[in-house]
Amino acid sequence: MKRLYCFFLICLTVLCLPGCASMNPPISRQDFLLDTIVSVTLYDTHSQDILNGCMDVCRELDALFSPTKEGSDVYRINHAGGRPVAVDARTAELIRKSLEVSQLTSGAFDITIAPLVDLWDFKSQFPRVPSQHQIDEALSLVDYRAVQVEGNTVTLTNPKASIDLGGIAKGYIADRMRDYLLENGCQSAILDLGGNVYAMGKRTDGNNWTIGIRSPFDTQSQIGTLTVSDRSVVTSGPYERYFEVDGKRYHHILDPDTGYPVENGLASVTILSDQSTMGDALSTACFVLGPSEGEQLIQSLDQIDALFITDSRDIFSTGDLDFHKNS
User: Fold this and answer.
1) 246-281: per-residue pLDDT in tens?
2) How confident is the model at residue 238 (pLDDT cuts 50, 70, 90)?
3) Long-range contacts for 322-327 (Cβ within 8 Å, ≥24 apart)?
4) Which of 220, 232, 226 is nearest to 280 (CA)?
5) What does the buried/exposed string (b/e) look like for 217-228 if buried means 16 or more CB atoms within 10 Å of the residue's CB?
């Protein structure tokens, strides 16, 4: 028996507690972009032009990074048959950052995982478990070292390889949306890119933001809250998209080494960082690495902290996080 579950629920929730509101209410806008609901809320400015411009930044970058939109940079790279492709400077920058994270994590994060993502096809109405032969064929194409970036030119040295920036693009886009708002005088805002939240500045009452962390065991409830300011909060978990076959669950976070969904005892990983680009990629990498190696990785990095939740409901963190577990 096969069941498909696709959740577009926001994994992180901004809780505006009493005292958060100002004399002038915030302005907000939502759009369906990046295969999720993107929401922007501005608290210290009430310019619709700035609000719309921020969303335009997201839309423009989505058009560059989409693997399915014909003409996008990623689409052209994947269909070039190994030929060099001139891309937008921002695409080249993001791919370079992706390769840095791949080296840092020894391949636990790898944008050349695209053939495996396509093979499993969790977005299909009728997903299926691939054969071992199919997985082995796709695995032979997964190697971040096959991606070369020189200036604004990207080359896949394996002509059959392809890339998917889905594990890092939302973080990069959140950073660019933040930059746009700062350049236009906005310092208090919430950018919510479906599981990727950037809490800019402080609330209008001068206090830090309170971010609710959704429970990986009951996605309709929260397991606790984090208090942050000028921080990105990104969560990865297997509950976002999965299907079941004969009582076994197969989720969308794939292991670049095995080609199968990760099974290592983790239920979710939340990364707090100044730069959402790094937080986005590390949330995936730490989930793949597992609780022990993931914790070691985060402890080796400056200005980055993590909250790990295991299948047995244990919760532990790195650094001195202001986390409050719900009773």
Assistant:
1) 889 999 999 999 999 999 999 999 999 999 999 999
2) confident
3) 322/208, 322/226, 322/227, 322/228, 323/213, 323/224, 323/225, 323/226, 324/224, 324/225, 324/227, 325/223, 325/224, 326/221, 326/222, 326/223, 326/224, 326/225
4) 232
5) eebeebbbbbbb
Residue 206, burial from CB neighbour count under 10 angstroms (0-12, 13-18, 19+): exposed
pLDDT tens per residue across span 193-213: 987 999 999 999 999 999 999
Asked if residues 295 and 277 have their Cβ atoms less than 8 Å apart, the reply is: no
Identify the H or E element spanning 250.
strand 248-251
Tokens representing 199 are: 């809490």
| CA neighbours closer than 13 Å in the CB half-sphere of residue 169 | 24
Residues 227, 208: contact at Cβ < 8 Å? Answer: yes
Give the separation between CA 54 and CA 284, rounded to whole angstroms.
26
Give the integer Cα–Cα distance in Å for 225 and 175: 22
| pLDDT at res. 137 | 98
- Using a CB cutoff of 8 Å and minimum separation of 24, what contacts does 48-56 make? 50/181, 50/184, 50/185, 50/186, 51/27, 53/180, 53/184, 54/177, 54/180, 54/181, 54/191, 55/29, 55/31
Neighbours of 245 (CB within 10 A): 14
Q: How far apart are CA 257 and CA 226, in angstroms?
A: 33
Question: Could you give the angle at which helices 169-183 and 89-104 cross, rounded to 10 degrees?
Answer: 130
User: To the nearest whole percent, how much of the chain has pLDDT over 70?
Assistant: 93
Q: Which residue has the higher pLDDT, 320 or 121?
A: 121
Q: Are 270 and 235 in contact (CB under 8 A)?
A: yes
Phi–psi pair at 246, nearest 5 degrees: 50, 40
Q: Is the pTM of this model over 0.85?
A: yes
